[in-house]
């Protein structure tokens, strides 16, 4: 019985790490390299630059970080840049255009791919709901809050505090209307360019206004200023908290909390890494495209947050309509209306693009059998993914109907941080795996079966990766994630005890750091795969370990309610995967693939689906 149970567990484990089979493509399916660095930068800015910053900057500045919101965007941008480089190496492993879900399936295995894909769906759906919610807020403010007043009376939600106070039927209608339009109209490159152009125009106007009409005193506010504002306000409930005043009124904790929320605003950088096959010089243009795109978007976000906090004291910023309010405060009513209308136009085109992108990943995963096959239905006349489009639109509409904008941002941020953690983990593990050719038996350096196991941790005999060294790195990487999670939890929940010298907490933190350093040294001693790649992340294993720690620590800054909602989403996903996907995936019908721990530098595989 024990032998049969062991065999069953082994076969079940092999199912979890099955990779998508690799096959050469037909010449007609190959992409012609035509994208230079400038093309990739335009593509990246178009995908990363998000009108959601119109609301996010005000929300973070008023309640979380004050004028130090610009530091929040800097922290989020730097961490996202590192993650972008990990995406670039992961794309170089595959050397084909495709989605990050597809890259994960090819390199890391089925379960890893499902987690990546399922949480990418969450980010895409929430991104759509968030744009609809922003459109609803700004339009409502433009017409004097009449919509929210009517909806609060007609559709109040007597629900827990993490849900909206009323059912936003207007936002639901926007999503469903755009979903119906997408059923007949495909995503247009022109719409994407118009969206990017409008966003840059509106943001440029805000930034110029901030430098022309801003007051540096708004970065040095004191309790006296707050008292005067309270005395001169007819509705003191609209004022936010003062904090300690100054540039960072809510301290270092506020900056970290704000950075955790700002991460989602940079989501989309992976689109550049998925264009390796179409880039003329991928080894140079992809990392440059990632860095320049993030820098351009950071400048835009930095400028907007600086302009808003310079023009309006942070505690007086309207959390759902900060930019038109700032312009109104400085230039008058007409300018405020112009900016509001321009913002709505940019949000409309962005909503169209978001609804178009949602179904692609759902269709791809359903086509692989990891989601329900019925979602792959193609409409006979319109030739579009009708079931995937409707499913994505309904899900996004329900989220826009029931959730607050802030909760949507929190959920998207935690999903984005998990995606960045997964890609850093993937690069850390894959770099130390032996080379494998799917068309022939595993070829790796000979195993040192008689060597001392403890000695092989620090002094491996082979100078190239073996199955054994690859397994050591896998085990150490999993242990590192566990220790980094415990350390992040300790620093997030009891920071004062750790840094004040409390014997128990400080000793625990120091012990964790020593263990993390030791395990990182063990990974560093293992041989790396020497196969040439168009791009390789420098400073392994230190850089991925640092990225994982930063991402996990920022995830710990989010509230327990958001963690509960995120846990429910993933519980539903695992129920679908273990109840349906693991038995209906395409790999179930093929010969078992070798475990993902013996991954390789990949250059031939099946055609990729459209990038998510």
TrEMBL record:
Annotated protein name in UniProt: Cationic amino acid transporter C-terminal domain-containing protein
Source organism: Sus scrofa (Pig)
UniProt keyword terms in alphabetical order: Amino-acid transport, Glycoprotein, Membrane, Transmembrane, Transmembrane helix, Transport
Domain annotation Cationic amino acid transporter C-terminal: ranges: 535-585
GO biological process: amino acid transport
UniProt GO molecular function: transmembrane transporter activity
Gene3D superfamilies according to UniProt: Amino acid/polyamine transporter I
Residue span of region Disordered: 589-612
Biased composition regions of type Basic and acidic residues, renumbered to the chain: 602-612
Family: Belongs to the amino acid-polyamine-organocation (APC) superfamily. Cationic amino acid transporter (CAT) (TC 2.A.3.3) family.
Coiled coil: none
Annotated membrane topology: Multi-pass membrane protein
Cellular location(s): Endomembrane system
Residues passing through the membrane, by range: 64-88, 100-126, 163-183, 190-212, 254-274, 286-315, 327-348, 386-405, 411-430, 472-493, 505-525, 537-556, 562-580
GO cellular component annotations of the record: endomembrane system; membrane
Pfam families named in the record: AA_permease_2, AA_permease_C
């Amino acid at each position: 019985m024990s032998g049969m149970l062991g065999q069953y567990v082994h076969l079940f484990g092999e199912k979890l790490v099955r990779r998508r089979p690799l096959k050469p493509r037909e010449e007609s399916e190959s992409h012609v390299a035509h994208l230079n660095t400038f093309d990739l930068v335009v593509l990246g800015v178009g995908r990363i630059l998000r009108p959601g910053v119109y609301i996010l900057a005000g929300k973070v500045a008023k309640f979380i970080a004050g004028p130090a919101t610009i530091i929040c965007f800097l922290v989020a941008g730097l961490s996202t840049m590192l993650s972008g480089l990990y995406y670039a190496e992961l794309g170089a492993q595959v050397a084909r255009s495709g989605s990050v879900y597809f890259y994960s399936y090819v390199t890391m295995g089925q379960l890893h791919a499902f987690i990546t894909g399922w949480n990418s769906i969450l980010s895409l759906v929430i991104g759509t709901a968030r744009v609809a919610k922003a459109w609803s807020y700004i339009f409502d403010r433009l017409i004097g809050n009449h919509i929210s007043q009517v909806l609060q009376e007609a559709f109040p939600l007597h629900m827990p505090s993490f849900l909206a106070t009323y059912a936003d039927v207007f936002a639901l209608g926007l999503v469903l209307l755009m979903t119906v339009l997408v059923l007949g109209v495909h995503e247009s490159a022109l719409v994407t360019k118009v969206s990017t152009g409008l966003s840059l125009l509106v943001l440029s106007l805000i930034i110029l206004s901030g430098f022309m009409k801003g007051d540096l005193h708004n970065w040095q506010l004191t309790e006296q200023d707050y008292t005067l504002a309270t005395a001169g306000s007819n509705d003191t409930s609209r004022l936010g908290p003062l904090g300690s005043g100054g540039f960072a009124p809510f301290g270092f904790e506020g900056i970290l909390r704000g950075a955790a929320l700002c991460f989602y605003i940079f989501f989309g950088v992976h689109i550049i890494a998925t264009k390796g096959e179409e880039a003329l010089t991928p080894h140079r243009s992809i990392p440059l495209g990632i860095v320049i795109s993030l820098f351009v978007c950071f400048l835009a976000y930095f400028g907007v947050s600086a302009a808003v906090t310079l023009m309006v004291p942070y505690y007086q910023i309207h959390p759902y309509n900060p930019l038109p309010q700032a312009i109104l405060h400085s230039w008058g009513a007409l300018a405020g209306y112009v900016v509001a209308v321009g913002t709505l136009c940019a949000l409309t085109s962005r909503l169209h693009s978001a609804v178009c992108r949602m179904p692609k990943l759902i269709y791809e995963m359903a086509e692989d059998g990891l989601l329900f096959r019925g979602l792959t239905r193609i409409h006979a006349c319109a030739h579009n993914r009708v079931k995937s489009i409707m499913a994505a639109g309904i899900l996004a509409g329900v989220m826009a109907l029931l959730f607050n904008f802030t909760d949507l941002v929190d959920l998207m941020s935690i999903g984005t941080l998990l995606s960045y953690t997964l890609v850093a983990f993937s690069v850390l593990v894959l770099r130390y795996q032996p080379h494998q050719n799917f068309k022939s038996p595993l070829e790796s350096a000979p195993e040192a079966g008689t060597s001392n196991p403890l000695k092989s941790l620090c002094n491996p005999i082979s100078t190239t990766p073996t199955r054994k060294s690859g397994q050591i790195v896998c085990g150490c990487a999993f242990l590192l994630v566990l220790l980094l999670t415990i350390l992040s939890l300790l620093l997030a929940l009891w920071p004062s005890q750790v840094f004040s010298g409390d014997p128990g907490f400080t000793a625990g933190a120091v012990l964790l750091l020593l263990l993390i350093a030791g395990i990182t040294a063990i990974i560093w001693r293992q041989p790396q795969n020497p196969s040439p790649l168009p791009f390789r992340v420098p400073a392994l294993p230190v850089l991925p370990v640092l990225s994982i720690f930063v991402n996990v620590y920022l995830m710990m800054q989010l509230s327990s309610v958001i963690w509960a909602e995120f846990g429910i989403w993933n519980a539903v996903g695992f129920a679908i995967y273990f109840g349906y996907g693991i038995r209906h995936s395409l790999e179930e019908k093929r010969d078992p693939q070798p475990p993902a721990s013996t991954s390789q530098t990949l250059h031939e595989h099946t055609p990729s689906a459209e990038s998510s």
